[in-house]
Amino acid sequence: MWDSLREMFAMIELELRRLKHDRTEMYTRAVQPILWLAVYGTVMGHIRAIPTDGIPYLDYITPGVLLQSTIFVSVFYGLTIVWERETGILKKLLVAPASRYATVIGRSIASGVRAIVQAFIIIPVAMLLGVRFMLNPFYFFAAFFILFFVSGGFAAISIFVASVMKTRERFMGIGQALIMPLFFASNALYPIKLMPPILQYFAIFNPLTYAIDAVRGLVITGDLTNLLPDVAAVAIFDIMMFTVASISFRKIIE
Amino acid sequence: MMLAIEVRQLVKIYAGRVKALDGVDFTVNAGDIFALLGPNGSGKTTLMRILTTQFKPTSGEAYIFGFDVVKNDSDVRKNIGYVPQEMSVWTDISGFENLLIYAKIYGIPSKYRKDIIWDALESMGLDAIANNLVKTYSGGMIRRLEIACAMIIKPRLMFLDEPTIGLDPSARRIVWERLTSFRKEYGTTIFFNTHYMDEADHYSDEIAIMDKGKMVKFGTSSELKHSIRREVIQFKLRNQGVDEIVLKTIRSMDFVSDVAIHDLELKVIVEDAETALPIIMDILRTEGITVEKISTARPTLDDVFLKYAGTMHLPNSTSSEIMSGKDSL
């Protein structure tokens, strides 16, 4: 147990150290979400075509854009695992005292580190664009916590995908095909009730919907009535994904 | 004597079809350096990956210091260090940071951590570049860093999967010097796979040869060389070749396994050169052939490898030499 916890913390530290040496990826990855806010958000905000319960449109989409950039980071994190499989790193981690589930979960959670650093770039930009955040440090802390854990779940999906698609090229394709549908079929850009019924159905099973709802409540509206079910949904999603990833991880090894 | 590794009837079948290990049996004494030789695809890496608990065997048993690799896998992992064949360090952080992350994964207490890491870096000759990013290291430095990673936990048994593949001769020598001095200091057992026969020859206490998922031969380097009973006597002839009749006479002796002539060089392959030499000399003298120089070559580990695990290129090449010898006659 201690061995496993230690390994998870070491994995988080590894990500921080990697970021310390090279932050280019953080900046380039921030370009897309900033475009969503600065271009799409401002334009659509002027039209006022989407009913957002009185919240300015830019404020409405900020949590969604934040989470989209988070899952971008974590879904492509599986690529690191594919790369580490081609090198000997994964083999060496398997021979460490921690259980192999610690390797899977530790690597997944470590992707949350990148997600949070990403948020630290996007939030100031959103502020400059005039988004008004709830200035409650506890709410912010809780929002980061959700960001961190939902990112772990998506990284676990990507480990699962990596175990099926054993090459980088295949993985790139699947990664792209996964993120955008999840983003569009969620409450990131518009309320679910505006969607056609089939899409609504999909959005209800989309973990991103719950994560966005929770973060929006915490940092934009301050409405926490749905927080508990949202967090429960994210927790269920994480547990399911960690389990699937841990099981499929065997395939990566052999 | 305590056994570091004990393997009984180990079988591994991949995806229900490919038989990578086909009933492997062997033991390794604690404190030994043990070399495992074998052609590509003979099952060396599979064997090492089972012994390091990366996956389970299909059947059979394996013990590391008495711990079962399947049932007590976490005890096994606490006692072993492992350097895989492929690169196994993170290149986007420094050498020191790599060791720091591994030290944390292995739970080395924080008060000893730095000392242990610097010790390992110094003993691998990496202290001067410890804070540089690993992507700036040469292949030899990366290998040494990987070995340093395995050293920090002072394992009782170290597994090295082709530790010097792709390194230049001086880098190889440095790696082995550090490994042997590490073993001297801590009594670590070392188990390694290699394709470099000279490494097995120089550095190992015992050698095993594997072929098609089975262990085909064990022994010390000199035992193995002796076992193939194949020494080469080379005669440099003064000014005339040897005709087919003389070749036939020599070949008909029961201790001779092959004869070849190439220009003025006569090669005779025998079981034991010391007893064969006078007899062959007699034959040559009766035929009036003058010998200018004689040399004998004992078998190398390469010959041993080819005999037990090779596809036997040797007899073919000798007979083709004979053919070309005939042409020149």
Describe the structure.
The complex is a heterodimer of chains A (254) and B (329). Chain A is mostly helical and 254 residues long. Chain A has one domain. Chain A contains eleven helices and no strands. The longest helix of chain A has 29 residues, at 100-128. Chain A is globular and about 55 Å long. Chain B has 329 residues and is an alpha/beta fold. Chain B folds into two domains: 30-54 and 67-211 and 219-225, 3-Layer(aba) Sandwich (Rossmann fold), CATH 3.40.50.300; 229-328, Alpha-Beta Plaits (2-Layer Sandwich), CATH 3.30.70.100. Chain B has helices at residues 44-51, 73-79, 95-105, 110-123, 139-151, 169-186, 197-203, 221-227, 244-252, 273-286, 301-308, 314-328, and strands at 3-14, 18-29, 33-37, 59-64, 67-68, 80-83, 157-161, 189-194, 206-211, 214-219, 231-237, 256-262, 265-270, 291-297. In chain B, strand 4 (59-64) and strand 5 (67-68) form a beta hairpin. In chain B, helix 4 runs antiparallel to helix 5. Chain B is elongated and about 80 Å long. Chain B starts with a strand and ends with a helix. At the A-B interface, helix 1 and helix 5 of A face helix 2, strand 6 and helix 3 of B.
